[in-house]
Write the structure tokens for this entry.
Amino acid sequence: MVTIKEALKIIQDQSVNLKTENRHLKDCLGFSLSKNITAPFDMPSFDNSAMDGYALCGIYKEYKIVGEVAAGDMSEIALKEGEAVRIFTGAKTPEKTTAVIMQEKVSVHGDKLLLETEPKEGQCIRRKGEELKAGQLVFEKGYSISPAGIGLIGSLGIEKVEVFKKSVINLITTGNELIQPGKPKAEGQIFESNSFALAAACENFGFHCQDKKQIEDDFEAIKSGIKESLETADVLILSGGISVGDYDFVKQALEENGVEEQFYKVFQKPGKPLYFGKKGDKFVFALPGNPASSLSCFYVYVLPFLYQLSGSDKNGLNRYSFPISHDFENRSDRPSFLKAKISNSQAEILNGQGSSMIQSMALGNALAFIDAETSVKKGDLIECLLIS
Ligand SMILES: Nc1nc2c(c(=O)[nH]1)N[C@H]1C(S)=C(S)[C@@H](COP(=O)(O)OP(=O)(O)OC[C@H]3O[C@@H](n4cnc5c(N)ncnc54)[C@H](O)[C@@H]3O)O[C@H]1N2
Ligand code: MOO
């Protein structure tokens, strides 16, 4: 049995073999850059107007209108003192433009432009290079590409980016009692839900489960299922059959497939029988079957590792401390990840903390960490991992 800290360190210390690929801008959301990106040119690349209005030369209250520039116009108007041109948002400001005035603040009489007040030098002009200078570092290697990141990369004219490949994830659920939702359920059976929750949790953070298998509690079936899944997977996630019961065959089946244990059992609640192993450059997480245990272990251990394998600068769920909204006593002798809800900047530990209970996780939005046999008072800060 290892501590939470030790388990996380064992995972973090794995040497991983990152592969790269080129992806089109439209297909790189959530991927991590395998190279820095620097600005190929100044941004903006020319001085331009921030408003629909008039570009002005000199500081006056009256100007002569001598022309027009629209966004995308290439024409160069040489403005002289006291002259103005009609201009639109994003259009290149003529040379010698002192300021731009928005059209709501002027009146036009023939070719005469009258201002309510004198303009301030430089107003409403977006300067060349004010956001980025040519050659400036825009994103560092490892940056996880966000929608705004895609926007910026596109605006730099970059069509394809080199990113780290994401892992192929395969899932195996085990258990004789499991039947698929939608099928008639006999006494003693339960609906299989972990594979859906785990696949959804992967998708939620930009990872994808390629293959899903459900296998009964039969040693040979589990052993051959693992063998087959490992052929295509970079990361194999199993659920169930990892505890000490007579029908818990997963650990032995992994061993017989040449998977080397990195740790088995973590001193925590939920998720004590968590297993982590490796075979060559493939990794295996065997999560406890209890629905809340498997998902909690996914968030705390699998997700950081998926990020690590994808070259990301992220290392798991965001962690923040929040004041707890009520007194709470953790009676468990194990440090606990408790299903919690953050609202109005306060954390509430929800009812229904059993490892088999997933409703509290579904209604909550965080896992609150409270040490074993620890009491906290209303207002004390507790560490929370934000699920959403
Ligand atoms: N004698 C002991 N018994 C148990 C121990 C222990 O230390 N000694 N540990 C308990 C803890 S803690 C956990 S957690 C569970 C984990 O057991 P397994 O990983 O072997 O999981 P299963 O026994 O297969 O299933 C547990 C529970 O979860 C339900 N389940 C399983 N798979 C799914 C699924 N895909 N979808 C929905 N629900 C699932 C299953 O029906 C069981 O109710 O072991 C304790 N026992
Ligand atoms: O390790 Mo278990 O998840 O407490 O029931």
The longest helix spans residues 291-309. The longest strand covers residues 62-69. The mean pLDDT is 96. The radius of gyration is 30 Å.
